[in-house]
Each structure stands twice: as C-alpha cells, then as structure tokens.
Write a structure and sequence with these properties.
globular, single chain, 407 residues, 5-stranded mixed beta sheet, alpha+beta
C-alpha cells in the first residue's frame, strides 16, 4: 500500500484529480486521521469524523483573525477582505447574528415561490440546447445549461433584471477563485477586480430597491435591516448579495454538470430515471454523495480536542475531505456504486453544523427540476466526446461537457 503522503499527493496529478476515490479509500482504511506535516493539516476521510468536526463548537472556520496571522497584507486585497468577512468565514456570535438575519430569505416559502421561475428558466435553456443539437451535432452542456441556469436563478432570487446579468458569468467565475485553497497572483488580481465590480453593482441595486422595493431577496434583506434597527450593516448587505451570487452560482453549476455526467456514465441509471422522472431528487442526492462539487473544507481547533482517537492541538488545522466521507462504506454501503434509488442517504456536500449551506434547498431544487425535464425531453442523450474537467484542488467541476441528443 502506498504511504499516506503519496496518496495525498496523488490526488493533485491529472489522474488523481479525475478519480481521487481509490486514494481516499486507501487513506481511510489505513490512516483515517492523517497529519500531513508539509501541509500542516489533519486529513479526515471517514464520514463520522468529518461530521463530528463540522458540528463541533471546538472547531472554527479560518476567519479574519486567522487571516491576519497567516496572510499579512490581506486587507490590500478587496477579495480577501470580502471573503474573510463573509458568512463563510465568520464564527460564533457574529456568524449567528448575520445568519439569523438573512436566513428567512432562503426559507421553504421563498424556495417554493421560486419554483415556477426555475421551471421557466430550465425550459428556456433546454430549448436552446435542443436547437443546438437538432442536427445531430454536439453541444456543450455547461455553456448552454450548466452555467446559465444557476446564474439566472440566483439573479432572479436577488432581483437582478435580465438585461443586467451579462457580466455575471465572468465575474462569478473570477470571484469564485477565492474558493481555491491556493491562489496565484493572477487569481488574486481577477478576484479583486470581480469583487470591486460586484460590490459596486450591488450597492447600486440596494439603492434602487430602497427607493422601489420588489419581491426579491434584496428587498427582503433591506426590510430586515431597517425593521431590525440596522443590525445588518450596509456593507454586510452588499457583501451578502455578492456571496449569494458567487456561492449560489459556482457550486450549483458544478453540481448540474456532475449529475448529468454521472447519469450518462451509468446508462442504466439514465434509463431508470427516464422511466421514473419523479426520482430526480434522489438522483441529485446520489450525485452529491457520489461526486460532490466541493471536495474538502477546513477548520481550526479552538482548543485541544480529539478526533477519531487522534489528539488535535489548539490551533491545529483540520481538512474534512467531504468526497471521502460521502463514500465511507460505514455510512453508505457499496459506496462506489451510483444508484439513484439509494435510500438512507446523508451527505456532507453542503457541510454541516453552523456553516450548513443556506442555499442547499435551492441547489437541490434546481438540480431536480433540470434532471426531471432533461430525461423527459432527451431520453437518449449521450456523451459526445471527452469532457474537460476544471483544474482545481478543492472543486469537482467540468469546464466543458459535450453532449448529443441522439434521438
């Protein structure tokens, strides 16, 4: 069996990025809590250990205080100032306050109210895909559907008029570089420019909605802020809208591509779903388990604590490998089998505990609506060439996914 360090490094090469699961399975069976000295982090590959860390108050996300120690000069980067002040990177009372104030904007009632718009957007995009493949040729699913769908849905949620969404794809991609654990100077430059541009746009949108409220998230958050004695600051409001765009766009776009690819890579599952389109929600859940968009997330120990029998010192960095936890046979029997009718599924894909993703229900709804309509309209959809994966350590995503409607 390869040594643990070799297993970790193997996921960084092209083959490992494409299929990291054997390496994670070997690590889970040999050293499920492994301290990599070079990266100075404890890798967790069991479901129970990952879940325990994500829900334990002894662990915190890397925040502004951490960033000030580890990344001197971070405030020179607008993107870092945004990211490490956002809901993704706050802890304790500060995190709870902001989450409580904005949580109502993502409740079941709002998601239910969004569904007709989601269905309309899905149908429009699938019409375009049908036109592009009408002559039997191939079309890039990510370009025509995978990326435009979440951009349109999250823009509709926020209240961005269709004519003003033109740059959101590019800006969302560039700001999304913040989700990578290692960023190049070019990553920072593009992320900084995107954050500045999006902050400017959303500040203007807030001004317009203050003068003329509408039935959208911006107006909802403005009302919360004003009624609640200003507890959500103007800057927090703008940055919340920015975060909703970036987080709601990037990971959902990846989920859609991963779901379609997983189903087409298992033709019997695609046919099963075509026969039972009502199982689309289960197909989304199985995709999240089998090939989750966010591979890993990190936490910092706020005090000495033990995980899986291994002592973690105060300040120790822990990496919960969500991809590995979701395929832990102790939680999901026969984990390498993709089965849309699997039951008793519980995934780590949207994290857990205080930082559970606020947009999880919306992402699931988008995926289910898309798959249900796709299998109905394109029952004989098929791959049309090699997909191109995005080069990323922390994200599972397709840059291109060529498909053909063969009948």
């Amino acid at each position: 069996m390869p040594d643990p360090e070799s297993l970790i490094l193997s996921i960084l090469d092209p083959d490992g990025r494409d299929n990291p699961h054997p390496a994670f399975a070997a690590l889970r069976s040999s050293v499920p809590v492994y301290h990599h000295t070079g990266l100075d982090t404890y890798f967790l590959t069991r479901f129970a250990d990952c879940h325990a860390v994500l829900t334990n108050s002894a662990f915190r996300v890397p925040d502004r205080e951490w960033c000030s120690r580890e990344f001197p000069g971070w405030r020179e980067h607008p993107a870092a100032e945004f990211f490490y002040s956002s809901l993704l990177r706050t802890n304790g009372a500060e995190h709870s306050r902001v989450r409580r104030l904005i949580g109502g904007g993502f409740g079941a009632r709002r998601i239910s109210a969004l569904l007709p718009a989601v269905r309309g957007i899905v149908d429009e995009l699938l019409d375009r895909f049908a036109d592009a493949t009408a002559d039997g040729g191939a079309a890039d699913f990510q370009e025509l559907v995978g990326y435009p769908l979440p951009i349109a849905v999250v823009s509709h949620l926020i209240g961005v008029p269709p004519r003003e969404r033109g740059d959101f794809d590019r800006l969302g991609h560039d700001a999304g570089r913040l989700l990578e654990p290692v960023r190049t100077p070019e990553d920072w430059r593009r992320a900084d420019e995107a954050v500045v541009a999006l902050r400017t746009y959303f500040a203007d949108l807030v001004r317009r909605r203050r003068a003329q409220p509408a039935d959208d998230l911006t107006s909802t958050l403005l009302a919360v802020r004003d009624v609640d004695d200003g507890r959500l600051s103007a800057d927090e409001l703008v940055d919340t809208l920015l975060l909703v765009l970036v987080a709601g766009f990037e990971t959902t776009a990846h989920l859609l591509g991963l779901a379609v690819h997983a189903l087409l890579s298992h033709p019997e599952q695609w046919r099963l779903l075509a026969e039972r389109p009502g199982a689309a929600a289960g197909a989304v859940e199985e995709t999240l388990r089998w090939d989750t968009p966010v591979r890993m997330t990190e936490r910092i120990a706020a005090r000495p604590v033990e995980v899986g029998g291994v002592p973690i010192p105060e300040g120790g960095n822990v990496t919960a490998v969500l991809t590995a936890g979701n395929r832990d046979p102790a939680r999901h029997p026969d984990p390498d089998t993709f089965a849309v009718l699997r039951t008793d599924t519980k995934v780590l894909s949207f994290s857990a505990g205080p930082h559970y993703c606020l947009g999880a229900a919306l992402a699931r709804a988008e995926g289910a609506e898309l798959l249900e309509r796709m299998v109905t309209r394109f029952p004989r959809l098929a791959p049309a060439g090699e997909p191109v994966r995005r080069k990323s350590v922390s994200l599972r995503a397709f840059a291109r996914l060529p498909l053909a409607a063969v009948g």
